[in-house]
Design a protein that fits this description.
alpha/beta; 429 residues; single chain; binds zinc ion; 2 domains
């Protein structure tokens, strides 16, 4: 039988994978993928993965999925960004002065530009405080991780800053071959040059304006949001939040993909606590669950009882074989995030990540980047490559994961992917 272009590429990628693993960095690739990235980015294998169409990014957090260097460059160049004299537990507090009453930074805060002139090491220190590495794994990793989001939100909430950062983010995603993204999104109002705060609807409209601009070059590029609340909230708070998600869904039809609760899963309440709130919700429930190695975590079994169609992570599904089989039968989507799982301490050795078995067993697995800006990673290339290198996947298995992600989109997106895939195969030599 003649080899297809896909067969030829599959063989070529496999040979390149062996080459990369034999080059002396295999231990880093398995145990510290983030540190292997500078080396990997110089390889032919990486170039091919970069060009590979990525279909839909189903799991990315809006507050952490952008280029942190670009955002910091803007902040350090601005006359309006100030730094607090007090550090948080894990990092500096910086903010636009327009965030405060009367557009004036609190007493004692210094203009960031001036602070940096006096302390040349400041930029590197702030950058380090917003990046997660394996060195940060500790019992306090989640409080640290959550503080990063606050630091980033404080600068990204300024409308002119946000527009620049997310225009670049959307363009970079599209250039990486990502057709669309479902952003986990904590609704936080943004403010403009004169301190005017935007309503949630006005804020969302800004994001869709950015998308419109980016579509001039990439007409197929689409953003949607998974309205996200917190795992620690009580029922009353979550009922209000779900109603709010519905309000946004009515205001922007087709743009709110669902509702989720974020944060440290093992610190929050289990899914059963919310019960009927989730089963009777007026928006689809897409839930972070199974992002845990705690044997007492049963959220995936509860997600099954609640009939949830789509799960963020699903990492510990291997503990529950009956649930796993039912997930397979029902085609529940698992949004797997390899690099995130390693950097937050859930899978120290990526070869032992259970998703490779979920893929082989025919579960509906998608591969995602979670918080690429905070992890020092690209929007999707790096996580796909982490999966490919550590799980010994074939090209058809990779492609299946990509196509799985398009079940959240319409038929046109699948047709677009086929076109992009054919172009990709044709361009490979
Ligand atoms: Zn997540």
């Amino acid at each position: 039988m003649d080899m297809t272009r896909e067969d030829i590429l599959d063989k070529k990628l496999d040979a390149l994978r062996r080459e990369v693993l034999a080059a002396g960095y295999d231990s880093l690739i398995y145990n510290d993928f983030q540190s292997a990235l500078p080396m990997l980015r110089k390889t032919e294998l990486y170039s091919i993965f970069k060009e590979m169409p990525k279909a839909w990014l189903c799991h990315a957090h809006f507050e952490a999925s952008f280029d942190p260097d670009f955002s910091l460059d803007l902040a350090f160049a601005s006359d309006d960004v100030y730094i607090s004299p007090d550090q948080g537990e894990f990092g500096w507090k910086i903010a636009y002065r327009q965030a405060f009453e009367g557009c004036t930074a609190p007493a004692g805060w210094t203009r960031l530009k001036d602070a940096a002139a006096a302390r040349p090491e400041l930029r590197a220190q702030i950058k380090r405080s917003i990046i997660t590495t394996l060195e940060d794994i500790s019992p306090r990793i989640w409080p640290r991780f959550e503080e990063i989001f606050i630091i980033l939100r404080n600068i990204n909430c300024y409308r002119p800053h946000l527009i620049k950062v997310f225009t670049k983010a959307f363009e970079d995603m599209a250039a990486e071959g990502i057709q669309g993204v479902d952003y986990r999104f904590i609704c936080q109002d943004i403010f403009d040059e004169d301190g005017h705060h935007y309503s949630p609807e006005e804020t969302m409209a800004v994001y869709f304006e950015i998308e419109k601009e980016v579509r001039r070059k990439y007409p197929w590029f689409t953003i949607r949001f998974v309205y996200s609340s917190y795992k620690g909230f009580d029922r009353e708070a979550i009922a209000r939040e779900i109603a709010f998600a519905k309000r946004l869904s009515d205001a922007f039809p087709g743009r709110i993909a669902g509702f989720d609760m974020v944060g440290c899963e093992d610190c929050g309440r289990d899914l059963n606590y919310y019960g009927q709130l989730l089963t009777g919700a007026p928006v689809p429930i897409i839930m972070h669950a199974g992002e845990s190695v705690d044997p007492a975590n049963h959220n995936l079994e509860q997600a099954l009882e609640l009939g949830l169609p789509r799960i963020g992570h699903g990492l510990n599904l291997y503990r529950y074989p009956a649930a796993l089989e039912e997930f397979r039968k029902r085609g529940v989507m698992l949004e797997v995030c390899p690099l995130s799982n390693q950097l937050l301490g859930y899978t120290p050795d990526l070869r032992l990540h259970p998703a490779k078995d979920y893929i082989r067993k025919g579960l509906n697995v998608t591969i995602n980047s979670d918080d690429c800006g905070v992890f020092g990673a690209s929007y999707l290339t790096d996580d796909l490559l982490a999966a490919y290198l550590n799980w010994n996947l074939s090209l058809p298995e990779m492609k299946r994961c990509l196509i799985n992600s398009l079940s959240v989109a319409d038929k046109a997106a699948l047709n677009q992917f086929s076109l992009m895939w054919d172009e990709f195969l044709t361009a490979i030599r």
